[in-house]
Structures are given as structure tokens and as C-alpha cells.
């Protein structure tokens, strides 16, 4: 995978770790948009017959999108990373999903997420996001998903 400058470690915004981590780096992150990158390796849980599966694409999209909302749990008012924050999150609904093509092992995919709506309480956040995943210029996957994220206390 090529080297990128100013990338953000996804582990700062997600509780996921190997082998369930389906994003390598955040390339861009704002309060409403995110762009991530992920190299598909042969030993990935969601690889079958030389291809990254539909389930892997869904998980990559969810992890990408969750960083939009998740950043508010992990950053303080000065945009500094908080220590010892633990969150739990899950896909609470998939409104629509289209898989156009499965990427091969060795491919590097980029996923873009956009926040459509968000509802926050003192206890949790629920967000609706759209995401699209590409391999080079080829659209592989698109979805509209709901995510629930809550800080463990």
C-alpha cells in the first residue's frame, strides 16, 4: 500500500482490534464526512475464494462511518484525544445496500462516508450515514446504514 501523509489511526475512534478491524487509516475526517483506506489481505476473516466478501464490505462501511460519530466520544473540546474511553457500537439498521463487485485479495479499497442525520443524548448517539466503497475508480459497494454508539461507563 502506498504511503500517505497526515493519516489518522482508526484505532483512536473505534474499539475494534484485529482480527475485526476492517479499516487501516482515516485519510480525511470532518464532523460530517470521512474517507478511509483498507488493504485486503489473504488472512482476513472475510476473505473467501480470493475475494473480500459482502459481509466484509458492510463491516468496512460501518467502521468507516462510525468514526464520524465516534470522534465526539474520543476527542475533547480542544480536539485532543481523551484517554481510556471505551465505546460500544453496532449497526442498528441497514436501509439499503448494493454490492456491485467484490474486491480481490491484495486490493486497496477506499470508503467514503457522509452523515445524513444524527440524534444525541447524554447516553448515546444514533446516526444515519451513506457510504460508498471504491477500488481505484470502480464503485464496489454502497449503503445507507444506521449506527448506535454509546460510551461504556
Walk me through the structure.
The protein is mainly beta and 153 residues long. It has one domain (8-151): Hotdog Thioesterase (Thiol Ester Dehydrase, Chain A). 14% of the residues lie in helices and 46% in strands. It is built from one helix and nine strands; from the N terminus they run βββββαββββ. It has a seven-stranded antiparallel β-sheet, with helices on one face. Strands 4-5 form a two-stranded antiparallel sheet. The longest helix has 21 residues, at 54-74. The N and C termini lie far apart (38 Å). The model has no long low-confidence stretch (mean pLDDT 88).
Keywords:
153 residues, mainly beta, Thiol Ester Dehydrase, Chain A, seven-stranded antiparallel beta sheet, two-stranded antiparallel ribbon, 14% helix, globular
